[in-house]
Amino acid sequence: MSSANEYAIVALGLRKRFGELEAVRGVSFKVRYGEVYGFLGPNGAGKSTTVGMLITLIKPTGGEAFVAGYSVVREPVEVRRRIGVVFQDPTVDRDLTAIHNMLLHARIHGVPSRIAEERAWELLEMVGLEEHAYRPLRDYSGGMIRRFEIARSLLTNPRVVFMDEPTIGLDPHARTGVWDVIRELKRRGVTVFLTTHYMDEADKLCDRLAIIDHGRIIAEGTPSQLKSKVAGDTLYVRVEDGGVARLKRLLARYGEVKDAGNGLLVLVANDAPRLLPEIISEAQREGVRILETRYTRPSLDDVFLLLTGRRLRDEGGDWRFWGRRVARRLL
Amino acid sequence: MGEKGSTQTLIGGSEADKPRLKALGVGVYDPGFARPLAAMMHRQLLRFRYARSRLVNAILFPLVWLIFFGLGWSAAFNMAGGLARRLFGGLEYLEFLAPGIVAMSVFTGGFGSGLGVIWDREFGYLKEVLVSPAPRPALILGRILGDSLVALFQGFVMALLVSLVAGFPGPVGFVLELIAAYMAALASSSLGTLIALKMRSPEGFHMVVNLIMMPMLFISGAFYPVTPLPSWLKALAYINPLYYAVDLSRGLVYGVHNTPLLLDAIGLAAVTAASLALVVKEFSRIYIA
Ligand SMILES: Nc1ncnc2c1ncn2[C@@H]1O[C@H](COP(=O)(O)OP(=O)(O)OP(=O)(O)O)[C@@H](O)[C@H]1O
Ligand SMILES: [Mg+2]
Questions:
Q1: Rg of chain A taking only CA atoms, in angstroms
Q2: DSSP letters along B60-98, please?
């Protein structure tokens, strides 16, 4: 199983059927050690179900998966020893304090108490909760519980961390904090598997990501690869009045050019970051003085639209809350 | 095992990664069996400390019985004189009732602890526990041990309160009463947990518990002796774990019992063992979906 050893996560045709509904319909992907890999998809796409199978709590109805080199079906305990998990819904003991929750986690995971205590405080500090360590989690806000759970998932120093919508319900400040934690994990060589339905989050954090819809991966790649599927980037180049005609001729080689007036030319083309320096040096050679350049790239939302004909948007709090309550009843 | 058994080894992966990962302290721990067991036990004790209202609940209900039921009947039986005494094996009615009330308090407490299992599922903590590498039997057995200690503590407080009303049975009698109470606590916590694992909602659990708790109380021999009962009711008493708990308790404290004490003990142990076996089986196979 050489591929299982090179990769932190390997999924081979994973499937999960809940009665009539097939929530995950043959999902395959590989995540290298040290990568931040994202699952981006709308509500009900099958993100949490896939995570559930990878962390050994949901039994696949088909396919196979390996995490840290171990089969999630045949060697679940070995997998559990190597992962950290942040579930979509809270999984804390609300009657106990944060520090008690931390230390219990350490003890059921076998972290020696000396190390555990030190790390627990470090991690609580990292997420800005050390002052609230002795409060029962009942008194925490949703965002604080989220941050607590992220800290707790790192207590065992796991090599692979699963985070199911880690920033859901967080204010913008706390969201940025979580992003910083994820970037820090990446810097330390930890593999992060992340699900989200925020495209900006996926775009900013993920080395690679899969777009998932109706239980299938409909596209996979780096954020820029995915976005390059959409017609192209839009480049804006402004020149001195005298150079407009010459620049227009030059740009026409790369794609369709529009004159926006005031010396501003607009070009739609693929791969603007590669193109832009080329255009600038060409222009220099022709003696055209460029005053300003900029470009915009398509968003992952545009990619989703292209692939499914629908927009990928947050449907709003109430709806999700309702859906989740129903899901919890079902468990 | 415990702390010494915890090993920190490197994860299987490409060779080139290993030194770097070691420097970072990325490790794989082995929780062993004893530590998660102790942790889950400790958790139940901590929860109890942070939720004192539960103690009040578990004490209040039996206390109400002792005072309003016990004192009332005791006055009535005193009028009947010697005949009543013979019925209660030579004991005052309050003395007859006292061990039963303690056993009942412990049993209610132990049974009710099963509710925690359901809340853990409801509030997600179950997932946090299930995704850990700790052996599932250690997790659930630790929890039951913790619950049984909490129930024992309730029994202890109850025994003290009861002796104010019915008289202190002496230090030896008191300790013996607690031993009986602990056996009852283990049996009821195991049984309560088993029922909870089979249930999906708190409402369902309450329904089942109320449904079986009432008849269990009445044919336990706590309030009246089971000897004069019709044989079909007596047969029910003999499959009632609370009956054995009450008989054992009364036998140990006052030397008055209906079945041999060894049989009482074996009966309770058998209920405990069977429930635990089923609990471990049920809990070990849990996939959440
Ligand atoms: N235990 C279950 N029993 C039955 N159906 C389920 C269960 N869990 C999930 N589903 C269904 O499977 C589908 C995928 O659910 P899943 O939770 O994986 O979606 P998701 O991508 O995580 O969505 P969200 O963004 O809302 O969290 C949904 O239609 C959901 O209703
Ligand atoms: Mg989800």
A1: 24
A2: HHHHHIIIIIIIHHHHHHHHHTHHHHHHTTT--HHHHHH
Residue B54's CB is within 10 A of a number of other CB atoms, namely 18
Q: Is A44 in the pocket of ligand 1 (CB under 6 A)?
A: yes
- The domains found in chain A, sorted by start residue, are 2-227+309-329 (3.40.50.300), 233-297 (3.30.70)
Integer Cα distance of A37 and A233 in angstroms: 24
Q: Convert the pLDDT of each residue in B269-282 to its tens digit.
A: 999 999 999 999 99
CA distance A100 to chain B (A): 9
pLDDT in tens, B184-202: 999 999 999 999 999 888 8
- Measured from the CB, is residue A61 less than 6 Å from ligand 1? no
Measured CA to CA, the distance from residue B245 to residue B144 in angstroms comes to: 18
Mutual orientation of helices B136-166 and B170-198 as an angle, nearest 10°? 140
Tell me which chain B residue has its CA closest to the CA of residue A1: B13
Task: Kindly give, in sequence order, each residue whose CB lies less than 8 Å from that of residue A289, ignoring residues fewer than 6 positions away.
Answer: A239, A240, A243, A283
- CA B202 – CA B79 distance, rounded (Å): 45
Find the DSSP H helices in B132-201: 136-166, 170-198
Question: What pLDDT is attached to residue A98?
Answer: 97
The pair of three-digit structure tokens given for residue B69, joined into one six-digit string: 């039921």
Amino acid at B195: I
Give me the pLDDT at residue B14, please.
39
Q: If 0-12 CB within 10 Å is exposed, 13-18 middle and 19+ buried, where does residue A148 land?
A: buried
In total, the C-beta contacts within 8 angstroms joining chain A to chain B are 138
Question: Model-level pTM?
Answer: 0.83
ipTM of the complex: 0.84
Q: Whose CA is nearest to atom 18 of ligand 1?
A: A46
State the distance from the centre of ligand 2 to the C-alpha of A46, rounded, in angstroms. 7
Q: Are A9 and A56 in contact (CB under 8 A)?
A: no
Ligand 1 site, residue A52, Cβ cutoff 6 A: no
- Interchain CB distance below 8 Å, A59 and B287: yes
